[in-house]
Every structure is written in structure tokens, then in C-alpha cells.
Amino acid sequence: MKPIVTNVNGVSPLVLQFEENQLLPLLYGDFDRHLARIEQALGVSIASRGNTLTISGAPAEVDVARLSLEDLYGRLEEGLEVSLGEVDAAVRLARDAVTMGEEGMNEVVRGGSIIRTPKRHLSPRSPGQKRYLRALLENEMTFGLGPAGTGKTYLAVGMAVSMLTTGKVDRIVLSRPAVEAGERLGFLPGDMRDKIDPYLRPLYDALYDMMAPEQVDRKLESGEIEVAPLAFMRGRTLSNAYVILDEAQNATPIQMKMFLTRLGENARMVVTGDLSQIDLPRGVTSGLRHAIRTLNGIEGVAAEYLKAEDVVRHELVSRIVNAYDAAEGRTRADD
């Protein structure tokens, strides 16, 4: 239930009144640090008294603060956690909604896009992530492109785990090009999992974030979760599976076509990559770039582009991404 809003006239302070008093310590944060974070981000003033908050400031920023608090309060009503990261996410999404005008403000800020996994519930933390999650839900094949830290791989793994644990697919298949090893994996020691593990560590980290370690290990042993190097996917048909190709910018066009045509019945496929971090030899076209151009407009295929604004790691990461983008732009101009 949304808090009661009074004094919405663009001049007087806006007053929010909450009904569930037991949720307020979680909403406000220790020593009101969540409220302080919103004040700092938006330049507003928030005064708390019992179950009432009074927000003062520029009308547009007050609207963003209100939507942010409504979103966070709704999360708590659903039994979800609220952290400083969630506060930052609520502000980003609310700002986007206000920018969109009346249509955006009337929409539920996160659009109900919550991925439920055994260990945690995931929801979008930026407007780009919100669009990406919607694409994952609605399409059989989704391309997620963007810089490090935008959550493109993490959210894809979360969706895969959710669909596996709810019985919508029978298995998860994780793949990644092993460019650094030249895909000559036979020369590396150990079995196939030992050979490819170093290149799939981020995917494992995401899995262990969403499922108990013993559950992950059990499903790896049973084959419900499969780790397969891209070079070894040839000739297979992947049915009833959630298939993820990570670091796809390092696949060649031939490899990419081979991978995409593995899609079988009742399967979902997600291809993630960062076109600014291609490690292929000079002169070799990225299969990811080629696929995006080739498949543009095909029904059932979506491509979502995440940007520096969608980085949800340390805020410095976003500034680093922007700095590198600017430097590369200057280099291209000099050339």
C-alpha cells in the first residue's frame, strides 16, 4: 500500500504518511542514512517525525524523492531488503520516471520485474537494467551489451537460475570463448571443467551468489548446470535449456552463427558482451558486432544497450567508463 501523500501543490512541502510503523526503521536506515542518501542525491530536505516524512525542495526533485520512497516502501512490504544500493537504484529509476512525465510517474517504478532465486531477489537498479530485464522476460533470444558493472551477465544468470528452480527449463548451459588459451584446451591440465573454469569464473561467482554452494555443486555434477567452452558447442541442439554466452565480443562470426543455431525447443538464449573490449586478433571481426547487425529487426530477438549510467558497482567505475569512452572518441577524431 502506498503512503498517503498530502500538500502536493509544487510550493508547500510534500508530506508522506506511512501505515506500517514497523517498516520505517528499515526504510529510514540506521541513523536515517537512507534518508540522508536521498537528500544528498537530490538536494532536498527530508524531516521525519513518527510515521510522517516531510520533503522540501525543488518540485521535480521532490517528486523523485517521493517516488523513490514509495518504491523502497513497496519493497519492504514485499519482504525484500533495502540497502544503500537499493536507495541509489530507487533514485535512478524515479528520476527516469519523472523525466518521462505523467506516463512514467504513473508506472510502478520497477515494473514488477523481480527475479527470485533461492538466495536472493534481484530487481533492476537502473533504467537500462529495467529495459534489459523486460527483454529477458519477453524474448527467446536477447543480446545484452554494455561496459563492465552494468549487470548484463549477473541478471542473465539470475533469470536462468529462477527458470531452473521453478521448472521452466531443465538445465542451464554456460559458455564463453577461451580466447586467451587460443581454444587449445587439450593442452591444459585436468578435465574439461578444470580447463575452462578460469574463463567462466564470473559465471560461477554469480551462481554461488544465487544458490547455496552445495546446490550449485550438485547441479553441476548432475548436468542440470553445464559449463561448455564455445568451441565445443558445435553439432548440439539445446532444448529445454537456458543458454548464456558471456564475453561474446570475443567470438568470431562463424562461432557466433554456430552458437545461435544451437537453440532448441523451449529454450532461451542470452548473449552478453562489451564491444569496447574485443580481444580478437587485429583484423578479425567480432561475431557479436556482426550478429547485432545481421539480426536487427528479427522477431523474437532483442538487443539492449547498457551504458555507463547503468553501472551499479562503485560510482567510480561509471566515471572510469566515461573517461575511457571520451579518450577513445578523441583517438578516433585524431585518426
If you had to describe this structure to a student in words, what would you say it looks like?
The chain has 335 residues and is α/β, with parallel strands linked by helices. Helices cover 44% and strands 15% of the residues. It contains 12 helices and 12 strands. The protein has a 6-stranded parallel sheet with strand order 9-8-10-11-7-12. Strands 1-2-4-3 form a 4-stranded antiparallel sheet. Strand 3 (45-49) and strand 4 (52-56) form a beta hairpin. Helix 6 packs parallel to helix 7, helix 7 (152-165) crosses helix 8 and helix 10 crosses helix 11. It starts with a strand and ends with a helix. Residues 181-185 have low confidence and may be disordered.
Notable traits:
6-stranded parallel sheet; 12 strands; 335 residues; alpha/beta; 4-stranded antiparallel sheet; 44% helix
Can you give me a brief rundown of this structure?
This protein has 335 residues and is α/β, with parallel strands linked by helices. The protein is built from 12 helices and 12 strands. The chain has helices at residues 24-28, 33-42, 59-77, 84-99, 102-106, 127-138, 152-165, 192-210, 213-222, 253-260, 287-294, 315-334; strands at 4-6, 14-17, 45-49, 52-56, 115-116, 121-122, 141-145, 171-175, 225-227, 241-245, 268-273, 301-305.
